[in-house]
Amino acid sequence: MGTNRTGNRAVSRSSSETSGAVLSLADYLQRLKAVGLKVRVKRSALENEWILAEHSSGFKAQVRFYEEPSEFGIDEGRISKLWIADENDKPVVEYDRGWSIVPPRSGPAKELYDSLRALAREPGEGNK
Length: 128
What we know:
A hairpin with a 5-residue loop joins strand 2 (about 50-55) and strand 3 (about 60-65). The protein contains 3 helices and 6 strands, in the order H-H-E-E-E-E-E-E-H. It is globular and about 35 Å long. The protein is α+β, with helices and mostly antiparallel strands. It has one domain (about 15-120). The chain has a 6-stranded antiparallel sheet, covered by helices on one side.
């Protein structure tokens, strides 16, 4: 197992999964914009880049994205931290290397969560 540029160990993948395993931050942002999300990148004091996204419903998300899948990501994927809040800034989804608030089964938070997750995958990468 190698280490990605953020210092996290990348997850071992089969050869069919590793082709195209890197998804750049710029490409992920393009994908988010293409589905109508308002997005911007914020750099924290610790030099971490956070994606801030807003859904048409007023729901907001903050995402810590890695270019390669990580053992710390949701289902060993590229999103290692995720916060989604409703239009009143009440948290409705929280993941920080583990679930604090799991995604709802329906509604705008679920739609936003599904979009963020799906767009972080490369073609051929399945759900776990």
